[in-house]
């Protein structure tokens, strides 16, 4: 059993961010419900936020927090418009599976 | 040592919730797992000294954006997904390829990153709201004002898209 | 180790006092509503109905705990748990007074003084929406679903004016931690006007206080905004399918939210534990005076009571009040108890306003409620914040 380090090794934050990002990609590629695909995109954005905050900790400057804040604002705007688009798709095609909304005309 | 244990607890919660998000068939369970991921990440941000960003994550992300997701799922009455036949490559190659990708990334990070300070609670004190406010209104004022216009555009877009068609 | 033990003791004490207070706020509400409506209220269980909350708790605990067969079991059981958890956690950052000194051991009367305490409370009130929304959805019942969606839409619509009404006194007081907010409201203008936020120059925050109170009524789903859960609307709203202990959990969550919001209003606008007039004019003797007069009145009415049981109970209350009045005179613990008294009496005044408005106003229709939030409260809160910022910048 290796000795427990006294502070969290910095690479662990980046590896956690990579794991969450990969899981987000897996959800994005393999799920068929368009809302779940959208949520996987939000998971990817969260993983990137963690990276920003971790590097901001490393250099002891708050600029990474500002970037993370703007990522959150952009994610909010994107979620609002994306969900409005999903509602419109559902109204027109009565389905929420991305395989069936793959053509531009009806 | 308790810093490492706390980080491991929240990291495990975040990864388990993320796996739950990908594997669950009902969108509501996925949405609540995503809220769990965001909560665990907010606590990790607290450990990294970002108390403003942790609060913003709770207020904006978990408290507003995810509530919007849950509203849409409830309004659309989204049901569980049908299971579909998958390509053989995907079924048996997907998981090992993902593990391989994560392994390569972890190896590159371990090797290439210069020695960095370990994560300790209280080691970074610049994440408080005063400093972030000062930066936002002095150095990053232009992106701040531009994001307000971005939010205005998003509101207009959402209102136009969700409006009933006037016959 | 010392820190953990002290925190555990404080948490246990605060949890015990809070849960008892929640039960007794319900008693106060029933009595006050009854007197507003010219009746008496509960009077059979214990003297003046004081054991009525105990009877209610026993009834709710011993009722059959039924889960309907058509609900989504996991979310049905999760929703009241989430509602109660996030309602009770918010008490952790509320300061009740200054410091407690026992021997040479001091600890602040607060579970934790986060330097982003205000943001913490805002975040928790945002997450508290999940309990309501999930309860409505998991019940698999269209009335509960509509009630849940309406209630959560109302809660998130009123979060915006509430956040802006909170931001205005923060411009004057320059901190996000509750203890520093109250310390910034110490002192007196002209020797007798307290420097609370509603009197604070350069811009007294009276409009912010009113906006915050109205938004708080809507956040906690109380009259006049309680359409989603009123009994004669939509069956019973989002808690239609819940009975016994799970219904008690939603009830407890609503009262805990009410207490939290009252505490935040007192800390931000009414000066926390700062007294109403300076201590050199005798504000230290106010609790003794009030409790002494109540004790003497109880003893006097105990001599010729209206009901035979009161011959025994009223003198007992009189003696208890006189004892409490004496406690406030002990010089060793009076400096600790006095801020606590001021804080609790101000929170009591705000809770009384809640109950008073419940007995007086009719309820809003849902579309009136939502258009009030977006067309009246939100622009008013923005204008108020703008004027506050202008006055602070011009000084």
Characterise the protein shown here:
The complex is a heterotrimer of chains A (106), B (167) and C (395). Chain A has 106 residues and is mainly α. Chain A has a domain at 32-101: Orthogonal Bundle (Helix Hairpins), CATH 1.10.287. Helices cover 74% and strands 0% of the residues of chain A. Chain A has three helices and no strands. In chain A, α1 runs antiparallel to α2 and α2 (34-59) packs antiparallel against α3. By secondary structure, chain B is mostly helical. Chain B folds into two domains: 2-127, Up-down Bundle (Four Helix Bundle (Hemerythrin (Met), subunit A)); 128-167. Chain B is 75% helix and 0% strand. Chain B is built from six helices and no strands. In chain B, 34% of the residues are buried. Chain C contains 13 helices and four strands. In chain C, the strands form two sheets. Chain C has a two-stranded antiparallel ribbon. In chain C, strands 3-4 form a two-stranded antiparallel sheet. Chain C has helices at 2-36, 52-62, 73-89, 117-127, 129-138, 142-173, 178-183, 206-219, 244-269, 286-303, 310-327, 334-360, 366-394; strands at 99-102, 105-108, 188-189, 193-194. Chain C has 395 residues and is mainly alpha-helical. Chains in contact: A-B, B-C. At the A-B interface, α1, α2 and α3 of A face α1, α2, α3, α4 and α5 of B.
In the CATH scheme, the class of the largest domain in chain B would be Mainly Alpha
> Into which percentage range does the β-strand content of chain B fall?
under 5%
Portion of residues in beta strands of chain A equals under 5%
Total count of helical runs of at least 4 residues of chain A: 3
The class by helix and strand makeup of chain A works out as mainly alpha
* Largest interface (CB < 8 Å): A-B, 68 and 78 residues
Q: Main traits of this protein?
A:
heterotrimer, A: 106 residues, mainly alpha, Helix Hairpins, C: mainly alpha, two-stranded antiparallel ribbon, 64% helix
List the helices and strands and how they pair.
The complex is a heterotrimer of chains A (106), B (167) and C (395).
Chain A: H1 10-30, H2 34-59, H3 63-93
Chain B: H1 2-23, H2 27-47, H3 51-76, H4 88-112, H5 129-138, H6 141-162
Helix pairs in contact in B: 1-2, 2-3
Chain C: H1 2-36, H2 52-62, H3 73-89, E1 99-102, E2 105-108, H4 117-127, H5 129-138, H6 142-173, H7 178-183, E3 188-189, E4 193-194, H8 206-219, H9 244-269, H10 286-303, H11 310-327, H12 334-360, H13 366-394
Antiparallel strand pairs in C: 1-2, 3-4
Helix pairs in contact in C: 1-2, 1-9, 1-12, 3-5, 3-9, 4-6, 5-6, 6-8, 6-13, 8-9, 8-13, 9-12, 10-11
């Amino acid at each position: 059993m290796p000795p427990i380090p006294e502070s969290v090794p910095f690479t662990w934050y980046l590896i956690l961010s990579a794991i969450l990002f990969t899981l987000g990609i897996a959800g994005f590629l393999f799920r068929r419900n368009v809302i779940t695909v959208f949520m996987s995109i939000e998971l990817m954005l969260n993983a990137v936020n963690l990276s920003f905050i971790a590097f901001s900790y490393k250099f002891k400057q708050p600029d990474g927090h500002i970037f993370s804040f703007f990522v959150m604002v952009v994610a909010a705007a994107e979620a609002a418009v994306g969900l409005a688009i999903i509602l419109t798709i559902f109204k027109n095609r009565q389905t929420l599976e991305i395989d069936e909304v793959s053509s531009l005309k009806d | 040592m308790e810093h490492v244990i706390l980080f491991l607890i929240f990291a495990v919660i975040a990864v388990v919730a993320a796996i739950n998000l990908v594997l669950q068939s009902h969108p509501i369970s996925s949405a609540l797992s995503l809220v769990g991921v965001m909560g665990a990440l907010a606590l990790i941000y607290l450990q990294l000294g970002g108390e403003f960003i942790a609060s913003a994550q709770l207020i904006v992300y978990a408290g507003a954006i995810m509530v919007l997701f849950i509203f849409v799922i409830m309004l659309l009455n989204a049901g569980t997904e049908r299971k579909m036949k998958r390509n053989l490559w995907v079924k048996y190659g997907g998981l090992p390829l993902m593990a391989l990708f994560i392994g390569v990334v972890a190896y590159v990070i371990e090797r290439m990153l210069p020695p960095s300070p370990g994560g300790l609670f209280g080691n970074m004190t610049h994440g408080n709201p005063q400093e972030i406010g000062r930066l936002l209104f002095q150095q990053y004022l232009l992106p701040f004002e531009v994001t307000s216009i971005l939010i205005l555009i998003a509101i207009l877009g959402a209102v136009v898209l969700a409006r009933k068609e006037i016959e | 180790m010392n820190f953990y033990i002290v925190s555990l003791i404080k948490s246990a004490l605060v949890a015990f006092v809070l849960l008892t207070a929640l039960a007794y706020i319900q008693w106060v509400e029933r009595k006050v509503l009854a007197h507003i409506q010219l009746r008496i209220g509960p009077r059979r269980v214990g003297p003046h109905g004081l054991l009525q909350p105990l009877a209610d708790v026993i009834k709710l605990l011993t009722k059959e705990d039924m889960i309907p067969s058509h609900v989504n079991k996991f979310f049905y059981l999760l929703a009241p748990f989430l509602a109660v958890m996030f309602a009770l956690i918010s008490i952790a950052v509320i300061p009740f007074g200054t410091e407690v000194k026992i021997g040479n051991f001091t600890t602040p009367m607060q579970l934790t003084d986060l330097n982003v305490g205000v943001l913490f409370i805002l975040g928790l009130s945002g997450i508290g929406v999940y309990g309501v929304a999930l309860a409505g959805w998991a019940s698999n019942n269209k009335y509960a679903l509509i009630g849940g969606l309406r209630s959560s839409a109302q809660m998130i619509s009123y979060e915006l004016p509430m956040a802006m009404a909170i931001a205005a006194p923060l411009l004057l007081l320059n901190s996000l931690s509750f203890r520093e907010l109250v310390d910034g409201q110490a002192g007196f203008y002209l020797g007798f006007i307290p420097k609370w936020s509603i009197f604070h120059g350069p811009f007294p925050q009276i409009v912010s206080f009113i906006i915050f109170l109205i938004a708080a009524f809507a956040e906690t789903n109380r009259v006049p905004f309680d359409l989603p859960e009123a009994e004669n609307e939509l069956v019973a709203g989002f808690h239609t399918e819940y009975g016994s202990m799970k219904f008690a959990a939603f009830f407890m969550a609503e009262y805990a939210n009410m207490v939290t919001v009252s505490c935040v209003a007192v800390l931000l606008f009414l000066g926390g534990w700062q007294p109403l007039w300076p201590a050199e004019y005798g504000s230290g003797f106010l609790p003794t005076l009030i409790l002494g007069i109540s004790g003497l009145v109880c003893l006097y009415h105990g001599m010729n009571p209206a009901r035979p049981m009161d011959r025994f109970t009223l003198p007992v209350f009189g003696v208890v009040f006189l004892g409490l009045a004496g406690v406030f005179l002990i010089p060793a613990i009076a400096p600790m108890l006095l801020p606590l008294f001021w804080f609790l009496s101000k929170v009591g005044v705000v809770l009384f306003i809640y109950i008073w408005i419940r007995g007086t106003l009719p309820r809003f229709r849902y579309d009136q409620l939502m258009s009030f939030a977006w067309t009246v409260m939100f622009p008013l809160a923005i204008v108020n914040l703008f004027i506050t910022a202008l006055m602070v910048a011009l000084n």
